[in-house]
Structure formats: C-alpha cells, structure tokens
Amino acid sequence: MSWWGKFLGGAVGLTMGGPLGLLIGGVIGHKLVDKPLQRNDNELTQAAFFSATFSIMGHISKADGHVSKDEIAMARQIMDHMKLDTEQKRAAIDLFNQGKQENFDLDGVLAQFKSVAHRRTTLLQMFLEIQLHAALADGKIDASEQIIINKIAYQSGFSKQHIEQLIALVSSNLGLAGNRYQYGHNEAHKSPAELLKEAYEMLGITASVSDAEVKKAYRRLMNQHHPDKLVSKGLPEEMIQMATEKTQQIKAAYELVKETRKRQ
C-alpha cells in the first residue's frame, strides 16, 4: 500500500506528529499526532514531502501579499503533472491554502521536514527545485520570495552558490511566454545561441570548462535527479514523472553541448 493509502486508512506506523502531522491530519481528517515521528519510515518521508511541498508552495505564493493567477496556474500545473487523483488534488489544494495563512509555521515545517529527510541531499534539492518553480511562476523571484527560498536552502545546507545554480537550472527548465513562465520547455522562439547558453546554465557550468568537466557536471546532475534513487530516498511516487523529465532535459542539454563542441 502506498503512503497515501496508509494515511487514508489511518494505518498505525504512519502516525506523524508536529506541524506536518497537523497539516496533513487536518486535510485528510485523521489525527496523526498521537505517536512520535518514525524517521526511518520511507512512506512517512513521502507523506512529509507531499505536505511540506504544497503548504510551503502556498506560503511562497502569498509572500508578496497577493497570490497571482500565474502562481495558482503553476501550482495546478504541478498537480496535473503529478497526475494526482481527485482526493490527492483536494489535499494538495488544502495544503496550499493552509500555507497562505498568516499563522503558517514555516520554521516548524522546515525543521521537521529536514529531520524526516535526514541529510538526504538529493531529496532536499528536489524539494527546493519544486519551490523555485513556484517562486518563478510570474517570471521573477521578488524580495519576499527570495527570503523564503534562502531560508529553505540554508536550513537544507545549501550554499549561496548552490542556490544560484539551482535557480539557473529551474529557469532553463521553464519556457517564457510573454511575462509568464510555463512548466516545461518552450523552445520554438529561441535561437541556437540562446539554447546553447541555457544548456550550459542547466549543467551549472560555463562554455570555458573542459570536456571532462562537462561530463562530470552531467553525471553529477543525472545522479542527483535519478528517479529511482529519489523515490528510494522518500520522493513521493506521484512526483517521479517530474524527476524523469528533469533527467531527460539534463541529457538533452548535455547532448547539445557535446555536439556543439564536436563541430567547433
């Protein structure tokens, strides 16, 4: 049975206390605060990832005082992309709305999620990337959103340089349409030079590095985004499609850089 099925069934062993337990317990209708957090339960980690993802996404969207149509559209695109069923989508929307509340406990949710993730760097990075998608929904990260992104990153142990690399990675995953970003690539209007520049940015390197460094960057990113590894570390199975598409985009970026260098 999946983590979702166990929560719906109120299964013993998936009882989760703290702010995350209160969040998802309120959404599903079970009291999940009676027993201590079971850190080594992978399904519990998946539930914590799901609750933290959508509640903090709502918090980021409300950071500037107003949730825009673009931010709502991005959240719904992510839900659709994950192919959530009706009940899961309802839960995700409820979590998103809880994150918008003034009394949302961002520090408590982040601290508990980090405890559950237990130094799983690739899982924490995927979580941050999803939040960057939300922050970039209207085409930019404003000051209030940047404060939250920085807090997530620093509590996860990521440096300022790492944040900048992830912003470049996520930005190159988003196609620009007018002043709005849409989930997925939109390459038709881009020149070969622009596509190559984005490919380097996605790999987190510059055009001046050696071929060996290009390959090293590619392998590192593929390892960080490998869907099976992420699921084994606690990524909800519903999010595996997002991880799969990221590996495809990273591979396409690498192939473009490699083929361009061969022709030079």
Characteristics of this structure?
single chain, mainly alpha, 13 helices
Protein described:
The protein is mainly alpha-helical and 264 residues long. It has one domain (3-263). Helix content is 66%, strand content 3%. It has helices at residues 3-8, 18-28, 42-61, 69-81, 86-99, 106-117, 121-135, 143-155, 160-173, 192-203, 211-224, 227-232, 240-263, and strands at 174-177, 180-183. The chain has a two-stranded antiparallel ribbon. Strand 1 and strand 2 (180-183) form a beta hairpin. Helix 4 packs antiparallel against helix 5 (86-99). The longest helix is centred in the last third of the chain and has 24 residues, at 240-263. It starts with a helix and ends with a helix.
